Amino acid sequence: MATLNDFQSKQRKYIPIFPKASGKPTVYIEGYPCEDDEPMAATGFHGEQIRIFSDQVSRYFQINPHIYIGVDSFIYYREGDVTKFVAPDVYIVFGVAKYPQRRSFYTWSEGAVPTTIFEFLSDSTAYQDRHGKFQVYLGDMGAQEYFIHQPEMEKPAEFRGWRRSPSGDIVEIAPDAQGGLFSEALNLYFRWENQLETHVRLLRPYLPDGTPITTSTEEHHLRMEEHHLRMEEERLRMEEERLRMEEQHRRMEAERRAAAAETLAAEETQRRQKAEGELERLRAQLANRENNDI
User: Fold this and answer.
1) pLDDT digits over 212-240, tens only?
2) Residue boundaries of the structural domains of the chain
3) CA torsion sign, 174 to 176 to 177 to 180?
4) CATH architecture designation of domain 2-213
5) Crossing angle of helices 44-60/216-293, nearest 10°?
6) CA 142 to chain centre
7) Which of 119, 125, 213, 247, by CA, is between 20 and 30 Å from 137?
């Protein structure tokens, strides 16, 4: 599995280093509601994007036990004020334990705020996602980065991001020529691509060197391909071993036949020499007998 091993090596290289948070994992604090009556995904496009994207970043960051991935759950960011909460589609928190899972995330108890937040636009949330939430997320709550993306292909493409500058100002992240954005906090590059079969404009994460972070389906296919490659390599190795053994057997058989022929030739020479010696002896006897008769 050379390809996956290569990716894992890059994964260890590129995941940011950060301190542990000062608090502790908190599953639930009484008095802070952890759910409402709203469905998780506003549209199928929205839900497909959240499902795939959250799986990608969760699998990528799984090697570090102090990175928490939240999906459409409440974040309370002001102790004692139950009105100060948000519920991003996906958010990533550095420095806090990955487990246990939380019913909500309480910034003061955990001692950390989300590092980066993602919202995927739907008709009901798009205006606030574009115009109001970056101030709440980056200004009030203190997150480092905020990204929005339009996953529905029938709507105009829209992928934007903001970050807090070292001075504390909120600045929009400039896209590159392909419309992609780089997350300095996550050390990842993001760019969207159209999924024609699902009509989802899928936001995808890449390593800084351009290596894509696979979806679960892609990783499964990659593992199957590598498994088949290993099986084929093993089949070829066994075939080469069989041919080598056959060649060795043919060589040994040829050597055996050559030795047998050499032995047979030596025995034939001995028989001929013996016969010639016997013939000479008989000739000598006959000559002696003829001389005696004279």
Assistant:
1) 998 877 765 566 667 567 777 877 788 88
2) 2-213, 215-294
3) negative
4) Alpha-Beta Complex (3.90)
5) 50
6) 31
7) 213
